[in-house]
Amino acid sequence: MDYSVAALKVVCSQLKHAREVQNHSQSSYTLGGILFQRVWLQGALVSDTPLVLDDGTGVIELSVSRDFLHRHWQPGMYAMVVGGYVVGTGDIPMVKVHKIVDLSSWPDREAMWYLEVMEAYKLFYQPLIEDFI
Known about the structure:
Layout: E1 8-9, E2 19-21, E3 28-31, E4 34-36, E5 38-48, E6 51-54, E7 59-63, E8 78-86, E9 94-102, H1 109-132
Parallel strand pairs: 1-5, 7-9
Antiparallel strand pairs: 2-3, 3-4, 5-6, 5-8, 6-7, 8-9
Protein name: RecQ-mediated genome instability protein 2
Organism: Arachis hypogaea (Peanut)
GO cellular component, one term: nuclear speck
């Protein structure tokens, strides 16, 4: 994993447009010309076996290591997740979790997240996508 490549702030529906790049030794993807390996998502946990996150635009499976199993993750929790993006063999893509945080106690978390994603798109991603086109 190349940690010099930033994690993209996205919603699940945007990942449907991601394309795998084969010229790297590690799995990399491109979204509108932006190279990435990791994603940053937020949403409600809707399943605990397997752990699945729903951000309102789609769902993604979370692959968590033993380091994160000390916390009891359960459906209904609102979580922030950062990790490596993987196109799974099934219908649902996957994130190999590097960081997961329970944000359930923050009342405006969901509304703020959508604003953060829009801000990142307008400030950082849109200019790169326009240059790519």
